[in-house]
């Protein structure tokens, strides 16, 4: 593939990556009361999924004392997986994979530290781990998907 073909559509890819980064920042830095309201909308769907899984899963379900804790980590993972895939798609040719990984990890750490100063939010090392896992998954998935099958 020529460089011109690869760079076609690059401004749109970068615009989409910026939009996702801004939306992720908003989601991670919103006050706790807004997060609770959003989770109250998602919780019925999560309960339905749990009931469905428990209807066929052969082992008894373990009680999770803090359900929102597990949901929080899942949300962090998926937010950063999307960021990882889209930022890799937009900037891997100019920055390289290593810099993309470091920048996204820095973004995750900065948003966690910033949560310390937001009402009803707290910073968590477990969130940073979920962010890092999501980043790696997103970068890996995009890198695997974007490789040409035939050279």
Describe the protein's architecture and organization.
The chain has a domain of 60 residues. Helix 2 runs antiparallel to helix 4, helix 4 packs antiparallel against helix 5 and helix 4 crosses helix 6. The protein is globular, with a radius of gyration of 18 Å. With 151 residues, it is mainly α. It is built from six helices and no strands.
Strand content: under 5%
N to C succession of SSEs: HHHHHH
Helix content: over 70%
First CA to last CA: what distance? 8 Å
Looking at this protein, list some descriptive labels:
mainly alpha, 6 helices
At a glance:
The chain is an all-alpha fold. It has 6 helices and no strands.
Give me the secondary-structure topology:
Blueprint lengths: L2 H5 L2 H20 L2 H25 L10 H29 L1 H19 L9 H22 L5
């Amino acid at each position: 593939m020529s460089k011109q073909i690869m760079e076609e559509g690059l401004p749109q890819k970068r615009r989409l990556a910026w939009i996702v980064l801004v939306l992720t920042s908003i989601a991670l830095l919103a006050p706790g009361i807004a997060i609770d309201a959003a989770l109250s909308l998602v919780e019925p769907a999560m309960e339905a999924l749990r009931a469905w899984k428990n209807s066929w899963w052969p082992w008894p379900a373990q009680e999770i004392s803090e359900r929102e804790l597990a949901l929080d980590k899942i949300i962090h993972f998926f937010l950063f997986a999307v960021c990882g895939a889209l930022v890799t798609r937009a900037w891997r040719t100019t920055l390289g994979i290593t810099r993309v990984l470091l920048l996204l990890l820095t973004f995750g750490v900065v948003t966690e530290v910033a949560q310390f100063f937001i009402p009803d939010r707290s910073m968590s090392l477990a969130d940073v781990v979920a962010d890092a896992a999501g980043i790696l998954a997103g970068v890996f998935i995009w890198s695997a998907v974007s490789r040409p099958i035939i050279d």
